[in-house]
Design a protein that fits this description.
The protein is an alpha/beta fold and about 550 residues long. The protein contains 19 helices and 15 strands. The strands form five sheets. Strands 3-11-8-2-7-5-6 form a seven-stranded mixed β-sheet, sandwiched between helices. It has a two-stranded antiparallel ribbon with strand order 1-13. The chain has a two-stranded parallel sheet with strand order 4-12. The structure holds zinc ion. Zinc ion binds next to loops.
């Protein structure tokens, strides 16, 4: 009895001395905690969540014990409190943390800030109130207060921080390689509070200034629409960019497990059995499949505007929804995203997290023509993190690592099948003439042979072929139906993802001087592709499906 009374007494003493710090900590932790709680259905509570939370607590401890004059310390930290307010605003309104993705939007979209305030003044005021209350109360409480000192706890917290970052760095070096990209990945994954903001800012600055010249050239490049056909009645375009999804594991392309049951039943799908990527890396394949320039001329792809700008110039409202984070692995993808009028990121979530936003976009403004670009996380390693539990349907045949990851990979395809089918179903219910393009960025090696290769970037028969198809609603015009019939002829022809933008232009009747009918799958002039691609720093002129 005496002991428990003592403990309670002690706790009360700590509370009395430390309440201002606890108020400040709650405020700083709020974006992280709220985001974790509200998105539990769309993301896995995994090691990364605990890592972020653990590092945050360690930073807060280090800050607490760095000096006994906590008033001064937290006064100096004011910039972090302001950034945390923006973070909280993003979490409450877009369910996304303040990461490099949003810092990038800030850097590249400042001209649209004038529309921002009138739309969001209410949530902005609420967040500002929370900031003033917490920060004010905390500082007043800390003013002239002498707090318990301990150098030992400070040293311990800093050591644990070094160990934590060290462990992550070790992991990413193992997975990727030692060098700048590992440091960038460490920064990208550091979403701790409050110091993680510095990591995100450093990452953004690095990505921005590393490509500043390119950004300038892209901005200055013009989109010249040469003609707009009035035969096209298509009002909604959806372009879904997949991730690491190879056809080998889709039942739609003949896999013996039923991984794509929904797409298998969808009418209006034109699939391609022999379609290859232009590079087995995300950062090259994605820009290339959204560009009219050939992969043999990477500089042109990088320095001219993409399909997003073409549709923007053609009078479409353009949207970019992404489940992929902005990091050094994405290359110029954030610049392509920046061409869209509207962008939203759903980082560290399942792909399904974007569905409610997609639905909102489809149902708003009846008269608006829409081009919606969706960049999913698809089947990106680690596969088990890509789908919710209800999609954990395929079980490994044995306890081997290969069987385990194959089952997880198949489950991620099953989830992609659900996602794409749901996106198509929503298009159907909108009753608007619509078209959907889906293509993975590249394939994936799944320890297929004795070499035991895993992942992509290798340039072989497992990571060069991609899963891709085009879907069209029933209510398109007759001329368009004829074009879709041409797509049937391409089913077993050798084609490249670089044909997709040319094909989309013809189908929607939007033409620029860079359109080439020989690249257009819906044209009589189409010439079968040799599947040229980039590998390493080099250009490989062909890839042969038949030599599998
Ligand atoms: Zn990729």
């Amino acid at each position: 009895m005496k002991n428990s009374a003592k403990i309670i007494d002690g706790l009360l003493k700590i509370l009395k001395a430390e309440w201002p710090n606890l108020v400040l900590w709650s405020y700083l932790l709020s974006p992280l905690v709220v985001r974790t709680l509200t998105s539990y259905q769309y993301s896995k509570i995994d090691l990364l969540v605990f890592y972020t939370l653990g590092m945050s607590v360690l930073w807060l401890l280090a800050i607490r014990f760095i000096s006994s004059n906590q008033f001064k310390v937290h006064l100096i930290l004011l910039p972090f409190y302001l950034v945390a307010a923006i973070d909280l605003f993003l979490v409450l309104n877009f369910n996304s943390r303040l990461t490099a993705a949003y810092l990038f939007i800030g850097l590249t979209n400042f001209q649209e800030a004038s529309e921002f305030l009138p739309t969001y003044w209410r949530p902005i005021s609420i967040v500002l109130m929370i900031f003033i209350l917490c920060y004010g109360a905390g500082l007043i409480g800390l003013h002239k207060r002498k707090l318990y000192k301990s150098k030992g706890v400070f040293v311990l917290a800093i050591s644990a921080l070094i160990a934590g970052y060290g462990a992550y760095f070790y992991k990413t070096v193992q997975l990727n390689s030692f060098g700048k990209s590992a440091v960038m990945d460490l920064l990208a994954k550091d979403q701790s509070t409050p110091v993680g903001y510095l990591s995100q800012i450093t990452l953004t600055a690095n990505l921005y200034f590393g490509t500043e010249k390119l950004i300038k050239r892209r901005r200055e490049s013009d989109v010249k629409i040469t003609s707009l056909s009035d035969q096209s009645t298509i009002e909604t375009i959806v372009f879904v960019i997949g991730e690491s999804s190879r056809p080998h594991n889709w039942s739609l392309y003949g896999y013996d497990k039923d991984t794509t049951p929904n797409l298998g039943k969808q009418a209006g799908i034109f699939k391609f059995n022999q379609i290859c990527t232009t590079a087995p890396y995300t950062s090259f394949a994605v820009p290339s499949m959204l560009s009219l320039e050939p992969i043999s001329d990477w500089d042109s792809i990088a320095s001219t505007k993409s399909l997003v700008s073409i549709y923007r110039a053609a009078g479409y409202m353009t949207y970019w929804l992404s489940v992929q984070e902005v990091d050094s692995f994405g290359g110029i993808i954030p610049q392509i995203a920046a061409e869209a009028q509207y962008r939203q990121y759903f980082e560290r979530s399942y792909d399904g997290a974007l569905m409610s936003e997609y639905e909102k976009i489809l149902n708003k403004n009846e008269t608006e023509k829409k081009a919606i670009f969706i960049h999913v996380k698809g089947s990106h390693f680690e596969y088990s993190r890509r789908y919710p539990e209800s999609f954990d349907q395929f079980k490994p045949a044995t306890s081997s690592f290969k069987d385990k990851i194959t089952a997880e990979y198949d489950n991620s395809i099953l989830y992609t099948d659900w996602l794409l089918s749901t996106i198509i179903d929503q298009l159907k219910s909108s009753k608007k003439p619509s078209v959907l393009f889906y293509s993975s960025d590249h394939g994936e090696n799944m320890m297929d042979d004795s070499r035991g290769l895993l992942g992509h970037g290798i340039g072989n028969k497992y990571d060069l072929p991609v899963s891709a198809f085009i879907w069209a609603s029933e209510n398109v015009s007759n001329q368009q139906s004829l074009k879709f019939l041409k797509l049937k002829e391409r089913e077993s022809q050798k084609i490249s993802i670089s044909s997709l933008p040319h094909t989309l232009l013809n189908i929607t009747g939007v033409f620029t001087n860079r359109y080439k009918s020989s690249d257009d799958l819906s044209s009589d002039d189409f010439v079968s592709s040799k599947c040229p691609h980039l590998l390493g720093a080099g250009y490989v002129p062909s890839f042969d499906f038949d030599a599998l």
